[in-house]
Amino acid sequence: MILYEREGCHLCEEARELLDAMLGPDRYARIDIETDDDLILRYGFRIPVVALDGEDRLEAPISGPDLRALLTVAYSDGPTSSGPFIDGWTVHRK
Fold this sequence. Notes:
Layout: E1 2-5, H1 10-22, E2 29-32, H2 37-43, E3 49-52, E4 55-59, H3 64-74, E5 79-80, E6 90-91
Parallel strand pairs: 1-2
Antiparallel strand pairs: 1-3, 3-4, 5-6
C-alpha cells in the first residue's frame, strides 16, 4: 500500500493518521510527490492518494469508512475487534 502525499498538506496528514491507526506506520509506503515531476503532474491536485497493487484506489478526501472498506477487501482476514484502533478496527496481513 502506498500513500502519495506532499509536505504541508493537511488532508495528507489526516490520511496518514488514519493509515497509522489502522495499519501501523511501518505497514505502508509514503511517497512525497514533490520528489518527481511526473508524480506532481499525476497527483498534483488529487493528493492524498492511496494506491494498492499499483492501482489508485482512494483520493482526497480520504475518510475512515472508505479506508476501512478498502482494507477489508485488500486483506482477506479483514477487520477484527482487538487492539487500540479507530472504531475498534485493525487489519492483519497473512
